[in-house]
Amino acid sequence: MTAPYRICSRCVMDTSAGDIYFDKNNICNYCSDFIERYGHILDKDPEQRRHELDILLAEVKKQGKGKQYDCVIGISGGVDSSWALVQAVRHGLRPLAVHMDNGWDSELAQNNIANLIKGLGVDLYTHVINWNEYRSLMQAFFDADVIDVELLYDNAMLAVNYQQSAEHGIKYILAGSNQATEGMRLPKGWTWLKFDKRNIKSIGNRFGNTRLKTFPSIGTLEFVYYEFVRKIRWIPFLDNFEYNKLEATDILKHEFGYKPYPFKHYESIFTRFFQGYILPNKFKVDKRRVHLGTLVTSGQMTREQAISGLEGIAYPSERALEDDKIYFTKKMGWTLQKLQDYINRPPKHHAVYPSEKMFWDALIKTYRTFKAD
């Protein structure tokens, strides 16, 4: 029997999340868990926040002394990573900006990155993935009917950032990730382990016999190597600031000619098509709920504004969606009928295919046990 539809009275998460539950006030576990886990970060005393930032900055500068760069910052053209780069430069750091180009960058994202790099006077390393290999891997993921096609980009992005840090002897990767705008966890089944190199390889081999030749990838053992042997630290840099996404966007627009996107991660043509069309239609997932729900819970947006932001399709217009359908099918070598056939097929879980998630989970459990002792 299907449970009746419910939506949280505090944020905008609803019963589309399979493991959601509500308290007597109709407040969901997602926003309650978010506040419990990260309230101390969001409500941190400004003086304490500044003190911790000063300690981090001093350590980054110390570790980078005598080197060309003292930190790596991955940039996508989105607000979070752009603001992290701005704050790093403003606080006297010497970052190497790293961009991973998988062939789906929007022209707007390219312009935003170019304006930012020029305005800040920093160096940019761009890793361009071999399109034929990447397209084959994407096709394999589509044929496998798994939900997290973005695992390919995210895994490669992680690998490239760690590789550049190791190559330049850098100990700190300062990421635009933060709890204020993305601290609410994604529901189970909406995403997959981002370090699951085995899952990528197995799906690539099974569908199309695609092997990783030039594709930058990272698995559990590589992660352990970079984090515990090379001692490279991945820091959610923006947690060290009172980060307000709307205010940051306004400053970026005024000082760097930045042009924003309608929704989170829409700097990539594929990501906006994936989140705006594929996820809602094939997997019945609307990521706007998590993104907007986080902003509501962290006090950066009202619930009414979030509900308004959820109205209609996750696109600026039907015309924009149709344009992206044409772009996507042409770039992938599909027909519109093939796209519809894909949408109509039932989803499959990542765990259907070989994976290193059990290995990852066991290592994390062991690490936390020893850390607690």
Describe the fold and architecture.
The model has no long low-confidence stretch (mean pLDDT about 95). With about 375 residues, the chain is mainly alpha-helical. The protein has one domain: 3-Layer(aba) Sandwich (Rossmann fold), CATH 3.40.50. The protein has helices at about 30-40, 45-65, 80-90, 105-120, 130-145, 150-165, 180, 195-205, 220-230, 245-255, 270-285, 290-295, 305-310, 320-330, 335-345, 355-370; strands at about 70-75, 95-100, 125-130, 170-175, 235. The chain has 16 helices and 5 strands.
Strand content: 5-15%
Gap from first CA to last CA: 45 Å
Tell me about the biggest sheet?
3 strands, parallel
Name of the CATH class = Alpha Beta
Task: Count all strands and give the number.
Answer: 5
State the helical fraction: 40-55%
Q: How many domains comprise the coordinates?
A: 1
Overall, the morphology is globular
The CATH superfamily turns out to be HUPs
Radius of gyration computed on alpha carbons: 21 Å
CATH topology: Rossmann fold
Q: Strand order across the biggest sheet?
A: 1-2-3
Named at the architecture level, the CATH assignment is 3-Layer(aba) Sandwich
Topology:
Blueprint: H1 29-42, H2 46-63, E1 71-74, H3 79-90, E2 95-101, H4 107-120, E3 123-128, H5 131-144, H6 151-167, E4 172-175, H7 179-182, H8 197-206, H9 220-229, E5 233-236, H10 245-256, H11 269-283, H12 288-297, H13 303-309, H14 318-332, H15 336-344, H16 357-372
Parallel strand pairs: 1-2, 2-3, 4-5
Helix pairs in contact: 3-10, 5-8, 11-14
Short description:
It is built from 16 helices and five strands. It is mainly alpha-helical and 373 residues long.
